[in-house]
Structure prediction request, 105 residues.
Amino acid sequence: MVGQALPLLHTQPARDWTVADLAVAVAASKTVLADRFLQLLDRPPIRYLSQWRLHLASGLLRTTGLGVGEIGATVGYNSEQAFSRAFQRELGKAPAHWRPEAIPS
Prediction:
């Protein structure tokens, strides 16, 4: 079940997932799915998704010239401010400070 959910989250990180949506997609109950995520990954599904989004965003910041707002939207945030707050909270730096000085062209 978690093995079915992870590819969905990984390939569709920008989708506005809820635990209910994910549970339907993998034919499980919300409770069972959430419990399995906690057992196997030590975090609930939406927390896992948030961390995955920020992982993807950190890579895009390091390897592309996309703007912070563009990257936030690409990984599923509705506003640049929400993305920046989440990034700062989770990774300890603002997205603009995460980007290296020279980005490969």
